[in-house]
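Sample 1 of the test manifest.
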Amino acid sequence: MARHLVVVGNGMVGHRLVSAMQDRDLDRHWRITVLGEESRLAYDRVALSAYVDGSSEEDLRLPEIDDPQVELRLGDPVVTLDRDARRVVTASGVELTYDALVLATGSVPFVPPVPGRDLPNCFVYRTLDDLDAIKEAAAAAVARPGPGRRSAVVVGGGLLGLEAARAMRLLGLSPQVVEIAPRLMPVQVDEGGGALLRSLVEKQDMAVRCGVAVSAIGEDRGRLVATLSDGVELDADLVVFSAGIRAADSLARGCGLAVGERGGVLVDATCRTRDENIWAIGECAALEGRTYGLVAPGYAMAEVVADRLLGGQASMQPSELDMSTKLKLLGVDVASFGDAHAATDGALEVVVNDPVAGTYSKLVVSDDARTLLGGVLVGDASKYATLRPLVGSPLPADPVAMIAPGGVELGADALPDSAQICSCNAVTKGALVRAIGDGAHDVAALKSCTRAGTSCGSCLPMLKNLLVQQGVEVSKSVCEHFAHSRAELFQIIAGAGIRTFSELVASHGTGRGCDLCKPVVASILASLGGGHILDGEQAALQDTNDHFLANMQRNGTYSVVPRIPGGEITPAGLIVIGEVARDFGLYTKITGGQRIDMFGARVEQLPQIWKRLVDAGFESGHAYGKSLRTVKSCVGSSWCRYGVQDSVGMAVMLELRYRGLRSPHKFKSGVSGCARECAEARSKDFGVIATENGWNLYVGGNGGANPRHADLLVQDVDTDELVRIIDRFLMFYIRTADRLQRTAAWLQAMEGGLDHLREVVVEDSLGICADLEAAMAAHVENYADEWRGVLEDPAKLERYVSFVNAPDTPDPTISFVTERGQPIPAPQPGDPVLVGTPVPIGMPGVRR
Amino acid sequence: MTAVETGLTWHTVCAFDRLQPERGVAALVDGVQIAIFRLHDGSVHAIGNVDPISGAAVLSRGIVGDRGGVPVVASPIYKQAFCLVDGRCLDDPAVSVARFAVRVDDHRVQIGLP
Ligand code: SRM
Ligand SMILES: Cc1cc2nc3c(=O)[nH]c(=O)nc-3n(C[C@H](O)[C@H](O)[C@H](O)COP(=O)(O)OP(=O)(O)OC[C@H]3O[C@@H](n4cnc5c(N)ncnc54)[C@H](O)[C@@H]3O)c2cc1C
Ligand code: SF4
Ligand code: FES
């Protein structure tokens, strides 16, 4: 039975914990209940101010958690925690017992105890509900008849206070910021920066008073009056307190759990409280006594607790937590990072103050001026994205030149791989470069596969910079060895009749290639009819999966997927697959592509397994190749009362026609017997839907990470015309698409879009259709099963061993455990524990 | 193949012809899994076969090539590049695999273990 985890608080960090559990707890050891005081789904509090600047609640919402193991109870705060009974009680009286409890209650805004602070139109700035109330009051003030400015007093001139002040401007009020310290943003910015910051803020039409406190708030003729410690009275339509936060630790206090000296639930480096069943994370936690008011440390804590709950050994490294900040949305650039106040022994400061340009930059460097320790940027924080990740690293240039106007421009290339580009989500440059190399070719793809850039957004410029540096946006070069795109390489190889990689790299490239360009060349050679993909030098170009004609799994074993055209299979065929799986101890699963996958085969077992399958009439299903996967079918007119054509027959025919066809990326198809679309053909690279009069052909559909519905290319065509157009479409795609570009992305990037495609492949505007058809005819003619090709060739066969010097010895590192009656890879004792680093979800780019 | 060869015991693992250019094989020598690669120029290199990132014994099955002229194999699991000469991971300085002495003696590929 799954144990019960109760999470109190559905804020940013609570949400992160639940998604970290989803990513890691694949065996479902825990069932989760989240109890949230706010009645809304979790949202991005860091971006809260965007709510007054055009973003809606939906825009701010964090990815929704849709999981039967997770129950959300919102709008119902926990009021009592009974540790002895391991039970919590909510305001509405619901009682829940837990095996583990995580407090993620965040903070409450600190409101200084001044008389009048509870008057109507006094607000705090923390939740969407707060902002709704502020918006309403501001709208009422603006609508109030009578002369005079509508104004707001913002108590607090820190990061949040300035954000709140800017929000007041956007709502049509004149803000007046009151800060008790002698300068704005005292925690982040030094004196020099503070002076400039003040003048920049004032230019934005916000009044600033530093070194004074609000001592009372009163009412006068329907408006508020804030009296300051120097006797000045400010009248205001509303007052916003933004004077700091206090950890929301009242539940802990109420049940005798230790709290830190300055508040916060006291936890150790594993985020566990003194009660072994209770953890605390995010702003409510006092990690070894200290609370953190930023989201990045909270996320790291969530990852640690998720790991611990699943038996891992992760813990926090408080000294490594990044406390850098950048002001968002103000129209004024301010950033501070690292040791901004030069607190390190012997630290030196390098300051460039340019009052004319309105910029102030300071770098703090080590005593030998070699290592960057921190800095402050005011007026122009564009270098923040490059400088922050450099903290702790050797300076790539003279520090003055790095911040002087017209000095050296630092790009992503100046950073070491270990530099953390996204501090909110602990993503390093190395991880991003890898993701880019694996096909994440725009900011959106990088966000979804690494989570970089998904919180405060300050690293976004750097993500773009990295893409450019990796040659993604500016050039379509395949890799460092060729200055050509895949389409250009296709032209070169086809045009010059090149038959080997060595020839190509000698004449058109440099070096000896890599895991990016070699599979591309292999695919092109195969499309041009290169014989068996493991013949001669071609073998060394193939991705591992193609090299072994099977899909490598995480423990080094392989999965085997025989082709089941159209998903149609005889009972005898099913029995053979069942027997093979049983005899070789393989895990079997029905795939999402209407066929059967057998997992856990060791490399030396592959030929024996294929032999049995091939003898029974099966062939490779190319689950490994960048080639046709499956043509999914619905049962169609053979059985279905609605079917208008034989969709299974069509699917089988198409699958057999295009099997083994190598392409820039995998491609999939589906055939539905009527418009009810049970085969989901419109989510495929090419999809066919039966009509009363023939077939409709849709192209450019995609499931996966970025789903897209296919577009209608031609309507009501007969079978011959259908096949002719698909032939042309596929060959045109194969010749012109980029590496790892599915048809959906290819079509979207095509100039002229669907209309242009139709001109080329239906109307033959380029006059290439005869050539495309001939190329497809050659493919169909020359197709041969790749598994059989290996079985019949002893030289290829001898490569299928775990050890060249011990062909009969299985790899001793491979072992299995049983799960739900079938074998799965045994967990590795040394499985690395990722702390603060998100567990890859789906990783569209990395596992291909 | 290596400068210091004294004190090593040489184990023959296969014939040189068994190595395809720019592809690896795995060998089990004294219980150690070793990935052996033959490069385009005929040179032979040997590093540990276990991919430290995934824990799977698969480095011999990666694509061989170069990165900025350094001969590398890309792990087939998550694609990090490992230098074939010294075993370091080019994508993550904290990670490396062992390198092994290897030579070709009369068409036999041999691994030297201390
Ligand atoms: C086995 C299977 C899951 C299952 O248990 O059902 C599967 C398994 C894998 N998928 Fe898939 N996908 C499977 C159906 C799908 C589907 C559903 C479908 O085809 O109807 C999709 C969404 C539809 C689509 O592709 O448009 C799908 C979208 C992906 C993607 C994302 C593609 C995209 O364009 O976003 C990847 C990653 C990639 O290819 O880059 C991927 C990659 C993979 C890889 C190859 C990842 C890897 O290298 O380890 C998995 C290896 C398969 C293996 O070892 O045998 N798989 N994958 C399904 C095999 C179907 C088959 O019979 O061939
Ligand atoms: C305007 C603004 C701007 C910010 N900008 C930045 C920034 O640029 N960078 C940055 O790193 N951070 C920023 N932050 C801080 C960041 O939002 C927080 O660090 C982060 O939200 C903390 O997450 P949390 O889950 O610990 O707390 P929260 O997100 O506050 O979530 C706690 C949740 O617990 C709920 N709760 C409390 N008590 C109970 C109870 N008894 N029962 C049930 N539920 C309860 C609360 O209602 C709340 O929903 C900003 C914050 C604000 C307000
Ligand atoms: S798509 Fe139409 S023909 Fe095919 S199964 Fe569904 S309802 Fe029947
Ligand atoms: S640094 Fe905040 S989202 Fe990347």
